[in-house]
Design brief:
The complex is a heterodimer of chains A (342) and B (623).
Chain A lengths: L32 H11 L10 E5 L14 E4 L5 H11 L4 E7 H7 L1 H10 L3 E7 L2 E2 L5 E2 L23 H7 L4 E6 L3 H13 L4 E6 L11 H4 L1 H7 E4 L6 E2 L6 E6 L2 E6 L16 H8 L8 E8 L5 H16 L4 H5 L5 E3 L1
Parallel strand pairs in A: 1-2, 1-3, 3-4, 4-8, 7-8, 9-13
Antiparallel strand pairs in A: 5-6, 7-13, 10-11, 11-12
Helix pairs in contact in A: 1-6, 3-4, 5-9
Chain B lengths: L2 E6 L5 E5 L1 E9 L4 H14 L3 E7 L14 E9 L10 E6 L2 H7 L3 E10 L5 H7 L9 H6 L1 E5 L1 H8 L7 H5 L2 H12 L5 H10 L4 H20 L5 E5 L7 E7 H16 L3 E5 L6 H8 L6 E5 L3 H13 L3 E6 L1 H17 L3 E7 L16 H6 L8 E3 L6 H16 L2 E7 H5 L1 E5 L45 E3 L14 H17 L15 E8 L3 H13 L4 E6 L1 E3 L5 H5 L2 E8 L5 H9 L4 E4 L8 H12 L4
Parallel strand pairs in B: 2-9, 3-6, 6-7, 7-8, 11-12, 11-13, 13-14, 14-16, 15-16, 19-20, 19-22, 22-23
Antiparallel strand pairs in B: 1-2, 3-5, 4-5, 10-17, 15-21
The chains are: A alpha/beta (342), B alpha/beta (623).
Chain lengths: 342, 623
């Protein structure tokens, strides 16, 4: 049933070029979306899925122009609804490899409800959420991930709403795969896309992305060389949570039930927090860590096995057919209480 | 209630023949009146009568017992001729408590049969119903109606006193006493109900025994008690020969979709969010996975319709169903299906509104919403079934048109059709028109918006087809290529093309059938569930020798090509609707005819009497 499974035909050897469409890319020069597009086009050949089996579904916003630039099937829909559209598509065609491309406004504001449900249902979708903490297409209003007090056109005195944390949200919804990567860290982004695309069920990837026009360097903490060296924490399964420059390595440990940063050399190896992708509870604690009090974790926070929505639905259908045969409308119409008039 | 014959049987009770009767069972929400009415309907259908029903129940699931707003009722008309409506005035009212009497007595004909359950008329229930004194003690009641005071509760308990059930459980069976009694009064067969009880309570033998025994006790009470000196027979109706079943509108919509799925060999995805009175379509479809109908109970109305659209993009038939408030939420997404030119079927089971309105009551006020309730120029096809059984054909036709023309089709059912049932002549599915879905697989010369010259539909491509990878979406696109286009002339062209595509569906519409003379004084034009009331009123006028005809529209957009011509063949045009005048506005705008409306918006079906009255008035008015 899954793409690349036993019933899928073998994919030709693709290159990045095979996934480039004939459309001119129309994002602002310098936009972080270019790097994400390039990474997607570069990683798709590694999936071994025939390109006609791949669909990109998007909502509305700068990120949602993405499908036009991919030489696959694509559907640019309406604001916030891509997860629901993609759910219907997977229900109709479980064998397709479906990506959802969305942003912080599309996916967490107008489409927040759909995001919740697509994650809890564990629909087999790869969801890429470009988080630039601003509304770009509508020219610079604050978004649900903008920091408290954000001054924008719509909040000249500073925003009064606290931001949502996309990863904490996703984990709270019961997401079975949650990762974070950065548009300017191309090898890492490619690795995350590959991991997410191979996950069974809903995979949620937050991509920290730069809007150089309306919210430049919102993620400077992981762009600036010095800051990145100090704050970036690479999550790797089975490895301790260590970060910082080699001469002053720091560690995140648990102090009771509270995460805490300590100098690595001050603590014995036995108290180090070893990352476990299968531990969703630990992932929820990790999702709340951010600079400056804590490092900025990137990588796979959680990757859990769980029942997949469309697989359950199709199994029910196949069981019904195998037990009682395919539906027959003529028989249904005459079933139950009937009477004859002569 | 016309009497046609009379006979006296051995028990000294006379059997009178009737050609039709209208009966209403009314009681508390917990009294099982819907079930009683449904069973009485089945008995009448078995007896060979034509039947029309009107269930009426409160929106509250367990409304406080004994209150006026907690009253639930089920009305039906059965007859030896064609029955078009559940009837206007009652021949027989069963009132299980004071509240039911208070709410429904006004509909009982003078001299009508009134059966009441006396123990329920205690001080507490009288207070709740707002009766200062017990109405059963008022001699005027018995003078005006043929009142029968029956201790149904007591007789029920007596009949099953030896069964190991508690008082509450025993109480609950008293509706079968009422059913048994009324079944005797109208000489209905008990077999279908006994059979039903056996099946329904197969796992609880005591309850099955109790219900069966109480049913028979009610029947025997009618037969033996001194108070009933006559009862009635309604001869079997002259109905087309064939195999029949009882059909409700919601089930018929669901089965129409199943038939379309089987015939088209394309899976269906049905997206829905629970809403009264449309939820039963979801429940019904969810039972039939063998037809490759995949149901999703979505997180909201928008997800329900967008999941259907996503499925259509994937090469399935996307269907969503709701009521007016839900369809309002779906508006933007329906526009996406218009723009992306994908098949989509939307069921709107209309109810009283606006806002939450009257969730369990019927209305026809979503026509304008279906036609125009979206941003910009967003034309869709609109169909409306006329009877519960007709819902089957209309659902099937909606899928056929949506797939052939690649566009959304809205089906306007309503609460009356949804829950009402009729004896339905089972069709041979082979006689349904084919649904010939052709997915494009040829990459040679493929362009996403290259149109079929006859239908103007664009090619339907299943993702997964090699060489046809393409992108579509909600942004305006260039015709033929499907590339994004902001060109002013192209937009104007596309607006016209989308409208023309809907207009071309007119080629699917058969010649309009006129009931009555081809020219005359009054033409009554209706749509949807008013079919029965209009037909009964028009036939009555025709029997009086008046030059009155009727036309009932299944196709509301596009309208039938011959309609404009037909409208001009009559001196006056009358449009009865359960809204404040929506179709009449469309007809006036479209055809420049001076059509007048007859409008009542009470949450109830129109009565044929009042339509007849409106016809008479129009006949007397100058052109």
């Amino acid at each position: 049933m899954s793409p690349g499974g036993a019933d899928a035909k073998e994919a030709p050897k693709y290159t990045k070029k095979d996934f480039e469409s004939d459309q001119d890319v129309r994002w602002c020069p310098g936009c972080g979306d270019y790097a994400i597009l390039s990474a997607a086009q570069k990683t798709l050949p590694d999936l071994g899925v025939p390109k006609e089996q791949i669909v990109f579904v998007s909502g509305i916003g700068c990120s949602s122009r993405f499908p036009y630039y991919m030489n696959t099937y694509g559907f640019h829909t309406i604001h916030g609804r891509a997860p629901a559209i993609a759910t219907g598509l997977k229900l109709a065609r479980p064998e397709l490899k479906v990506f959802v491309v969305t942003g912080d406004g599309d996916g967490l504001s107008i489409g927040g409800n759909h995001m919740l449900h697509v994650l809890r249902r564990n629909v087999g979708l790869t969801i890429l959420l470009f988080n630039n903490r601003i509304y770009g297409l509508t020219k610079g209003q604050y978004s649900p991930t903008s920091e408290l007090g954000k001054v924008t056109k719509s909040t000249p005195a500073g925003s009064a709403d606290r931001p949502v944390n996309p990863l904490a949200f996703a984990l709270g919804c019961g997401a079975t795969f949650v990762a974070r990567t950065v548009d300017r860290n191309i090898p890492h982004m490619e690795e995350m896309l590959r991991r997410a695309a191979r996950h069974r069920g809903a995979a949620f990837v937050e991509i920290l992305q730069n809007c150089n026009v309306y919210n430049d360097l919102a993620w400077n903490v992981v762009y600036d060389k010095e800051s990145r060296l100090r704050y970036e924490l690479r999550l790797e399964h089975g490895r301790p949570l260590l970060f910082g420059p080699p001469d002053e390595r720091q560690a995140v440990i648990m102090d009771g039930v509270v995460p805490k940063v300590v100098r690595a050399r001050d603590v014995p190896e036995s108290v180090l927090w070893v990352h476990d992708e299968k531990n969703a509870n630990a992932a929820k604690l990790l999702a709340d860590l951010f600079a400056p009090e804590f490092p900025v974790p990137i990588g796979v926070f959680a990757a859990i096995d769980a029942p997949v929505y469309e697989e359950i639905m199709l199994e029910q259908e196949q069981r019904a057919i195998s037990e009682r045969g395919p539906g027959d409308i003529a028989r249904l119409l005459t079933s139950g209480d009937t009477w004859k008039i002569t | 209630m016309g009497e046609v014959a009379a006979a006296v049987k051995g028990n000294g009770k006379s059997l009178k023949g009737l050609d039709r009767a209208v009966v209403r069972f009314a009681g508390d929400s917990g009294d099982g009146m819907q079930l009683t009415g449904e069973q009485f309907t089945t008995e009448s259908a078995w007896a060979g009568n034509d039947v029309a029903t009107l269930p009426n129940f409160p929106a509250e699931i367990r409304a406080p017992a004994g209150t006026l707003f907690g009253v639930s009722s089920f009305q039906l008309q059965f007859g030896s001729h064609r029955v078009y409506t559940p009837g206007d005035r009652l021949d027989c009212l069963v009132a299980m408590n004071p509240a039911a009497l208070k709410v429904h007595l006004r509909d009982l004909k003078t001299g009508g049969l009134l059966l009441v359950n006396t123990p329920a008329f205690d001080r507490r229930n009288l207070d709740k119903a707002g009766y200062a004194a017990n109405p059963l003690d008022d001699p005027a009641l018995a003078e005006r109606y043929r009142l029968h005071k029956v201790d149904m509760t007591g007789l029920t308990h007596e009949a099953i006193k030896d069964l190991p059930l508690n008082t509450k459980e025993k109480d609950r069976t008293k509706n079968f006493f009422a059913l048994g009694l009324v079944s005797w009064i109208y000489t209905r067969p008990l077999e279908p109900t006994l059979e039903w009880i056996g099946k329904k309570f197969a796992k609880n033998r005591d309850v099955a025994t109790a219900n069966a025994r109480v049913l028979k006790a009610g029947h025997a009470f009618g037969e033996t008690a001194e108070i009933f000196n006559e009862h009635y027979a309604v001869e079997a109706a002259e109905m087309a020969p064939g195999l029949y079943r009882a059909m409700t509108g919601n089930r018929a919509l669901a089965w129409g979709i199943l038939a379309a799925a089987q015939r088209s060999k394309v899976p269906v995805v049905y997206g829905a969010y629970p809403i009264t009175p449309a939820s039963d379509i979801l429940h019904e479809l969810a039972l039939h996975k063998r037809f490759r109908v995949r149901t999703i109970q979505a997180e909201d109305e928008i997800a329900a319709v967008t999941a259907a659209i996503g499925a259509s993009f994937g090469g399935a038939i996307g269907v969503t169903g709701s009521s007016g408030p839900g369809v309002a939420l779906k508006g933007e997404a329906i526009g996406l299906a218009v723009m992306a030119e994908l098949p989509l079927v939307v069921f709107d089971v209309q109810r009283g509104g606006p806002s939450t309105g009257l969730p369990t009551k019927t209305e026809q006020a979503d026509l304008m919403q279906a036609l125009y309730g979206r941003n910009s120029e967003s034309p869709v096809v609109v169909l409306a079934p006329a009877t519960p059984g007709d819902c089957f054909y209309v659902a099937y036709e909606a899928v056929r048109i949506a797939a052939k023309y690649m566009l959304p089709v809205v089906v306007l059912s309503d609460g009356f059709l949804a829950n009402g049932s009729e004896p339905w002549l089972i069709p041979d599915p082979e006689t349904l028109p084919p649904i010939d879905v052709q997915f494009r697989t040829d990459a040679d010369g493929f362009l996403p918006y290259l149109r079929d010259p006859a239908t103007l539909s664009r090619p339907w491509v299943r993702p997964g087809t090699p060489g046809l990878e393409h992108r579509i979406g909600g942004i305006e696109k260039q015709d033929v290529t499907g590339d994004i286009s902001y060109d002013p002339e192209n937009h104007d062209h596309m607006v016209r093309t989308r409208a023309e595509k809907v207009r071309r569906v007119a080629q699917e519409i058969p010649p309009t059938s006129i009931s009555g003379p081809a020219t005359g004084d009054v033409l009554v034009v209706g749509w949807g569930s008013t079919y029965g009331a209009i037909t009964a009123a028009v036939e009555r006028a025709q029997r009086a020798g008046q030059a009155v005809a009727s036309v009932h529209l299944r196709h509301l957009n596009p309208l039938p090509p011959d309609l404009g011509h037909i409208l001009r063949e009559y001196r006056r045009v009358l449009v009865p609707e359960i809204n404040s005048g929506q179709l009449v506005r469309v007809l006036r705008a479209e055809y420049l005819v001076d059509a007048v409306g007859f409008n009542r918006v009470r949450g109830l079906p129109l009565a044929s009497d009042e339509i007849h009255e409106a016809i008479s008035q129009l006949l007397g008015s100058p052109a």
